[in-house]
UniProtKB/TrEMBL annotation:
One of its GO terms (molecular function) is nucleic acid binding. The lineage of its organism: Bacteria, Bacillati, Bacillota, Bacilli, Bacillales. Belongs to the CvfB family. Residues 154-214 form the S1 motif domain. This is S1 motif domain-containing protein. It comes from Saccharococcus thermophilus. Pfam families: CvfB_1st, CvfB_2nd, S1_2, WHD_CvfB.
């Protein structure tokens, strides 16, 4: 007879009823199915298909609510809480959220998932028997991936980050392409579980893709010009930045290169929205 293990879906028999629920058995062990976790009325000797997990006191218990993930099944689950000293909790579809341990998260806190992000996980138990969510590894992601055709080059792509490393981030797209974003291809480092949008800049022989999160040049000018103009307005229409400003100062303030800053500023000047004078840029009234 298979042992009762947290993270498993099992069919057990009702051994006895109590005012607060049912005790189920596999023939040798018992587990409580609280009446709040039963979706139907059961009688002694009835069979019940349940999911086994640990309650808030660490006791093994059962529910008839089926989770999105198990020890043997992966799926996307949503991050519902972030606890700095523990990790992040994900909603697996039952009454108790499950922890993704700090040991399995990036060392940089800024790269941790935030509430609303999604992670591709299954379940596991640690050495103390605690039920935890387990992040999918590269091999698991390859099993659900779709090879990108050569025609995907330069197409827009939407996806979610499933792994971050020192020099980049790995994502899987909405249609299943596996992609890699090198650190040179973003303005801000994406976090684990974050949904991102970019474009495909290379399709490799194995069907994976390289992705850029940087906008195309014409899109970049629009975004950069809007950012510069918004900053100018926030300062009452004048700012101490112009086309001869130091590149490091521009990068620190606007998160863009000097070349991008000059292109965007040139556009604003051509449109008659700004002018420069004595090392300052002013908004035209």
């Amino acid at each position: 007879m298979k042992r009762l293990i947290a993270g498993e879906i099992m069919t057990l028999m009702v051994k006895r009823k109590t005012p607060f629920g049912y005790f189920l058995t596999n023939g040798t062990e018992e587990v409580l199915l609280h009446k709040s976790e039963a979706n139907e009325t059961l009688a002694v000797d009835d069979e019940a298909t349940v999911f086994l997990y640990h309650d808030h006191d660490g006791r093994l218990c059962a529910t008839m609510k089926m989770p999105k993930i198990t020890n043997n099944r992966y799926d996307w689950v949503e991050v519902v809480d972030v606890v700095p000293k523990l990790g992040v909790f994900v909603d697996i579809g039952i009454s108790k959220d499950v922890l993704v341990s700090i040991d399995d998260l990036p060392s940089l806190r800024s790269l941790w998932p935030q509430r609303g992000d999604q992670l591709y996980c299954s379940l596991k138990t640690d050495k103390r028997g605690r039920l935890l969510a387990k992040l999918a590894d590269d091999e698991t992601m390859k099993q659900i991936a779709v090879k990108a055709p050569e025609s995907a080059f330069n197409q827009n792509i939407r996806g979610r980050v499933y792994r971050v490393i020192k020099v980049g981030a790995f994502l899987i797209s909405d249609v299943g392409y596996l992609g890699f974003v090198h650190e040179s291809q973003w303005r801000r480092e994406p976090r684990l579980g974050e949904a991102v949008e970019g474009r495909i800049i290379a399709v490799k022989e194995d069907g994976t893709v390289n992705v850029s999160l940087l906008p195309r040049k014409h899109e970049s000018i629009d975004e950069d010009a809007a950012a510069i103009y918004a900053y100018l307005e926030s300062r009452g229409g004048a700012m101490p930045y112009h086309d001869k400003s130091d590149p490091d100062d521009i990068q620190a303030r606007f998160h863009m290169s000097k070349a991008a800053f000059k292109r965007a500023l040139g556009r604003l000047m051509k449109e008659g929205k700004v002018y420069q004078e004595n090392g300052w840029t002013y908004k035209k009234e």
